[in-house]
Every structure is written in structure tokens, then in C-alpha cells.
Amino acid sequence: MRLSLALLLACLAPALAATASTDRSRRLTQIINGYPAASPDGRQVVFQSNRTGRYELYVMNVDGTGVRQLTDLAGDNVTPDWSPDGRRIVFAATRDNASDVFIVDVDGKNLKRLTHSPGDDEHPHWTADGTRIVFDSARTTPDPSAAWETQWHEVFSMRPDGTDAKAHTQHRALCTYASLSPDGRRLVYRKAVPGPAFRWDLSPSERNSEIVVADADGSNEINVSRNAAFDGWPRWSPDGRRIVFASNRAGPAGVGQIYVVDADGSNLRQVSKGPWSHAQPAWAADGKRVYAYQVQEDEQGEFGNVVEWVVEP
Question: Where does the record locate the signal sequence feature (predicted)?
């Protein structure tokens, strides 16, 4: 396992947290650096951070140096993904009390809003050929004012200019964080299905968050996570053979780890370890590393950093 500079710095935090628990101190900063995505050339990572008081996008070198702010916009700007040609970043942003999809050049220029639907449009990801952007949308839900987790979130895709939006699923369910396989034939997404399960904090839930692989039209679903725990944030490997995701199946409450599974649901193995929680994984272009959000959560909130993990063959 090779640790990035961001991870080395983050490793100092457990000692500080332990001290805080014994000296009655109160944590005043809750800095969150999450949702990393690697550039196609493997040299940089884009991520979201709340260090300014709201979520903005930042870019840094893969060793943690050279951090620069990419966006400076009203509302929260989150879940970035790098275009295959390395020139643009797609992301979701809160505008007018809803989430929409935006695109911007890597130098922060040419910002464009791509969606304007009444429901939330979230979690955008590029297709491998760069011709479309996949995202989940609540635009077909019967009651947009209902609680987010009870709305219908279907998988859509559109061209990078925001035109030709088309639905890939019609499940009338919560289907989020979707992406198309490199060959464009299959989808992977997180789906909330009925049944006894556990939330991230291991409290009981009547809906189970699973990782599903399906054809590009949402048919022929295969549950590849198959666990009562919370499974989420799936991403295809660059070769289309594996899926990385996060799960809290190993516990304890509020702690998840990164897993890799073959696209048919076989050969599950754990990637990350340790007392810290890990979520929001994304592959490096070489398929040998993943970047993730390493986080600690307690009664005072959460804080965490971007880390790099090597994935064993």
C-alpha cells in the first residue's frame, strides 16, 4: 500500500481527536475534502471542499501539492468528474433550492449550466468516449416536495451541451450515482430496494442500499453487493471488468470501507482498512489505484481528506 501526502497529513488527526475527547475541547473546524476524481493523465485530482464555508471545487497534484480553487460560485458545488480529454469538469451545484448539472473548463472558464429541471439533477459522470454525461434526476417523481429519499431518482444521460436528455431507467425508485461501462453497454448505480437493512450508522432501515449492474436501458439488473449494509458510490474500472464501491458491512457504526467486485458480482475483496471510514471512491486511469474520501464522524460532526489506495490485482 502506498499512501499519498494527503493521507500522511490526515493520519495525524486520530491523535488530535483522542486528545479532544479527554480535554473537553470543542472542535471548531469541520473541513471536508471529498468526492475525488483523477485526471485522465493521472497527474491531478479534482475534489470538493468546504474550507471557505461552502463547497467549492479544487484541483491538486496527486501528491497533495499545488492546490488551487477551481470554482467561486454561490451555493454548493459538488461531485466533480473529469472529462476523458482532460479539458473539462462536470459537477452538480445548488441553485434556486435545487441541484443542477454544470460544466466548466479546468482553468475555471466557460461555466455553463446544463440542466434546468424542477427536480434535483445530481452526481454527473462522463462516458468513456466523452460524448455523453450520465446523471440521476428526480424530474419524473410525482411529488418533488417529498423527502429526497422517497422521490423517484432515475438514470439519465445527455450530451455535454445539455441537449438530447434521455432516460435509461424507469424503476420508480431511488437510483443514484450511475455511470456507463467503458463500452457503453451496461450501467452501474446505487439502488434503494425494499427490505430490512441498515443505514450508515447501522440503525435499522426498511430500504436496502445496493449496487446494481444493468443493461444500458435498465433491464436485466444484477445485484452485485448483496448485503443488508449500506452499499454506495459505485464506479466502473477503466477496463470495465470491476466495480469499486463503499460499504459499512464490516462496521462499526459510521465506518465504511472500499471494496472491489467483479462486474458479475463475484470475487469481492476489501481495499481500505483501518479505524478511519472511507467512501466516495474513484479509479485512477491506470486501474491500479483508487482515490477516496477518508473521514471521521462523531457527535461533533465529520471531517476528512482525499487519500489514495493501491488496488491489488
Answer: 1-20
pLDDT per residue as tens digits for the range 267-292: 999 999 999 999 999 999 999 999 99
Q: What is the DSSP string of 19-41?
A: HHHHTT-------BEEEEEE-TT
The identity of residue 226, as a single letter, is R
Q: Which amino acid is at 182?
A: P
Superfamily grouping for domain 5-22+32-310: TolB, C-terminal domain (2.120.10.30)
How far is residue 174's CA from residue 116's CA, in Å, rounded to a whole number?
A: 20
Enumerate the H helices of the chain as residue ranges.
5-10, 13-22
What is Dmax (Cα atoms) for the chain?
58
* Cβ atoms < 10 Å from Cβ of 61: 15
Residue 93 contacts residue 78 (beta carbons within 8 Å): yes
Q: CA-to-CA distance for 127 and 85, rounded, in angstroms?
A: 11
Sign of torsion, CA 297 91 83 130?
A: positive
- Give 156's strand partners: 135, 167
B/e letters for 271-280, b = 16+ CB within 10 Å, e = fewer, are bbeeebbbbb
Chain mean pLDDT for the chain = 92
Collapsing DSSP states into helix, strand and coil, what is residue 218? Answer: coil
Write down how long the chain is: 313
β-pairing, 277-283 vs 269-270, is unpaired
Q: In what order do the strands lie in the sheet with 56-61?
A: 33-38, 44-49, 56-61, 68-69
DSSP letters for 134-156: EEEE-TT-S-TTS-GGGS-BEEE
- Contact present, 75 and 95 (Cβ < 8 Å): yes
CA distance 156 to 22: 49
Rounded CA-CA distance 32/48 in Å is 8
pLDDT tens string 231-240: 999 999 999 9
Please give the grid coordinates belonging to residue 117. Answer: 429541471
One-letter amino acid of 43: R
275 within 8 A of 288, measured Cβ to Cβ: no
